[in-house]
Write a structure and sequence with these properties.
Helix 6 links the parallel strand 6 and strand 7. The chain folds into two domains: about 120 residues, 3-Layer(aba) Sandwich (Rossmann fold); about 170 residues, 3-Layer(aba) Sandwich (Rossmann fold). It contains 13 helices and eleven strands. Helices cover about 30% and strands about 15% of the residues. It is an alpha/beta fold. Helix 2 runs parallel beside helix 5, helix 6 crosses helix 7 and helix 6 packs across helix 12. The strands form two sheets. A six-stranded parallel sheet has the order 8-7-6-9-10-11, sandwiched between helices. It has a five-stranded parallel sheet with strand order 3-2-1-4-5. InterPro entries: Glyco_trans_9, LPS_LOS_Heptosyltrfase.
């Protein structure tokens, strides 16, 4: 990742051809794109990969080991950025991993790339609504001759050490209320795990200080159990280390769930408005998903960005979550031991 003073992120520093990837979304979106980014890295070894994404994801993008430079780009919500600050020669290849509309395709096409990988182009791969996010972008690259494995989602473990090794990480926040399980239920889970002898840490983003403090307080956790919040987001290298060395992560359908999957940390993820088969972790014993749709529900039965908890999310009980945690394999036990080892108090 380039950090040269005064240098534009898009300014070429070598004669190597460049691939510009548009994915100007959040942390979970970045991690869901790891298999596609790995396919680009393997299939185009002589290219620099430039990722157009929010500047706050620079450390996370670097941590994947799959991105050479980040080009800051963002827009409200999940909208397409109005422009890209690309001032060098046209990219050799532009890749639209942002969406399926003319806005993202047009933004990249306007830079004049030699080739454009995107859905919606004549003769190219066809967009499918009912498809897992990782599979969708891998299939796009497969359509352009680049082998891609949607299960190849791991990222290297961090060099940083965890501030709470072996802790159960509880993350009650989410970008939208529709994916936010009630605070009182998170607190009840944290309280029971704490009573069982586990160290429990509650993580919070910059805007989630009150939520995290309330969960920790209701759970009776000791001082210092909250990481992040009032002081801002947990630095990504610290967050990554915390998750990498955790016993497990209990979380809603948000970025931290994707981080647990990328690091192979046991997790329990709670789903509401969107089906796990579209955004969930790989089907491995170390990852448990809880979801209670109606029998005739489509894959997206609710509004993922709604302002109240989705009814399917509210059907998940505290005891269900505790049972799922108790049934998780021990971290690092390996794929076979996954199926028999269970999480026990520290």
């Amino acid at each position: 990742m380039s950090s040269r003073t005064g240098e534009s992120p898009s300014t070429p520093t070598s004669p190597r051809p460049r691939v510009l990837v548009l994915r100007a979304l959040g942390l979970g979106d970045l991690l869901a794109a790891v298999p596609a980014l790995r396919a680009l890295r393997r299939g185009l070894p002589g290219h620099d990969i430039v990722l157009a994404a929010p500047a706050r994801l620079a450390t996370a993008a670097a941590a994947t080991g799959l991105v050479d430079r980040l080009l800051p780009a963002s827009a409200p919500g999940r909208a397409v950025p109005a422009e890209l600050d690309w001032d060098g020669p046209p990219p050799d290849i532009a890749v639209d991993l942002h969406g399926n509309g003319p806005a993202s395709r047009g933004l990249l096409a306007g830079l004049g790339p030699r080739d454009l990988y995107a859905y919606g182009r004549a003769g190219g791969p066809v967009w499918r609504d009912d498809e897992h996010e990782r599979e969708r972008w891998c299939r796009l690259l497969e359509g352009h001759g680049l082998p891609a494995d949607p299960e190849d989602l791991s990222v290297p473990p961090p060099a940083t050490r965890s501030p709470a090794p072996g802790a159960v990480v509880v993350h009650p926040g989410a970008d939208a209320a529709a994916r936010r399980w009630p605070m009182e239920r998170f607190a009840a889970v944290a309280r029971e795990l704490h009573r069982a002898g586990h160290r429990v840490v509650v993580t919070a983003g910059a805007a989630e200080a009150r939520l995290a403090a309330s969960v920790a307080g209701l759970a009776g956790l000791p001082e210092g159990a909250v990481l992040g919040g009032a002081g801002g987001d947990v630095p990504f290298d610290v967050l990554m280390a915390l998750v990498a060395e955790a016993r497990c992560v209990v979380v809603g359908d948000t970025g931290l769930a994707h981080l647990a999957a990328a690091l192979g940390t046991p997790s329990v993820t709670l789903f509401g408005p969107v089906a796990p088969r579209l955004w969930g972790p790989p089907a491995r014993p170390r990852h448990r998903v809880l979801w209670h749709p109606d029998a005739d529900d489509p894959p997206r039965p609710g509004d993922a960005h709604g302002d109240r908890p989705d009814e399917r999310l509210l059907r998940i009980t505290v005891e269900e979550v505790l049972d799922a945690v108790r049934g998780l394999p021990l971290p690092g036990a390996g794929p076979r031991a996954d199926q028999a080892a269970v999480l026990r108090p520290g």
